[in-house]
Amino acid sequence: MKILVLLTMALLLMGSIYAKKDCEVKFISYNIRYEGAAADTGALDWKNRKEATVNMIRQEQPSVIGFQEPRPTQTTFVIEQFPDYGHVYAKMDKGEIPTGSSVLILYNKKRCKLLDWGYFWLNEKDIHSEVKGWDAHNLRPTSWVKLKDKKTKTIFYYFNTHLDHKGQVARIEGVELLIRQMKEIAGENAHVVIAGDMNCNPQTAFDTHKDGKPVRVLQPFYDWMKGGRETARITDDHYTFNGFGKIKTFHWLDYFFYRNGQALKFETLTKDYGAPYISDHYPIALTLNF
Fold first, then answer.
1. Domain interval for residue 196
2. Domain count along the chain
3. Radius of gyration of the chain, Cα coordinates, nearest whole angstrom
């Protein structure tokens, strides 16, 4: 009798563990480093990094991955390599892939069902038009997907963004706009994830607004959401911008934020995937339980 009870308890525990595993969703955010930069020669050239990028995705097997900076040829290449993944990306007015970043999102079709998707542009004039915002140096689109987990039937949203690298006002206002858009698209009670290259250091970093006041750029994310790096049960504090090893000061520039979930593991992906550096940014991964 005692053996039967112990066996039953063991089976229940195993069932609980596997059930929890079914609820886990792995996300990756990856600044791929745009193709064609004059300084990217030899091992740093995209043609010598692209297979390592493929290796990274195949090894890590994310349910969802968001890219920053892919040019049209990079976007097309990645899509072709992963037929088991669906994809969405920001499009220009005529439907073509942007010559800048497409903020491509891939999602595993075996795991996730696409319910809705869209994109918008970070600017103060018309977020549905290709317009630079505030003092931004580049056009800055954000893409998003509404997905249903086929295992658990849980619905969640993923936003993929890239803040400007020069415009301080554009970063400040861009974060505020992103919060408003997430609230409008997903709502307060949804499972929401946003990730990307934020081009600024953690919540202690300040930019100067146009009125001259210092502003903690990422604070709105920390107010409405939780930081993946800071709250995951297993985490690291490795820098994400490596500059292909050419810089003296390394930075956290890439982030995950989430709402209404549990962060299980945050990881900066620094492994050898077949190239000295797969990008000038290390990809970051976050496993969540919804």
1. 25-289
2. 1
3. 20
- Collect all residues with Cβ–Cβ distance below 8 Å to 230 and sequence separation of at least 6: none
- Residue 2 falls within a domain, yes or no? no
Could you tell me how far CA 170 lies from the centroid of its own chain?
Answer: 19
If DSSP codes are grouped into helix, strand and coil, which group holds residue 164? coil
CATH of the domain at 218: 3.60.10.10
**Would you say the pTM of this structure is higher than 0.85?**
yes
Residues for the chain: how many in total?
Answer: 290
Rounded Cα–Cα distance for residues 185 and 161 (Å):
15
How far is residue 162's CA from residue 225's CA, in Å, rounded to a whole number?
18
Q: Per-residue pLDDT tens for 93-131?
A: 666 787 777 899 999 999 999 999 999 999 999 999 999
Residue 121 lies in a domain: yes
pLDDT tens per residue across span 59-84: 999 999 999 999 999 999 999 999 99
Domain for residue 1, yes or no?
A: no
Residue 3, in any domain of the structure: no
262 in Cβ contact with 288 (< 8 Å): yes
Answer yes or no: are the C-beta atoms of 244 and 277 closer than 8 Å: yes
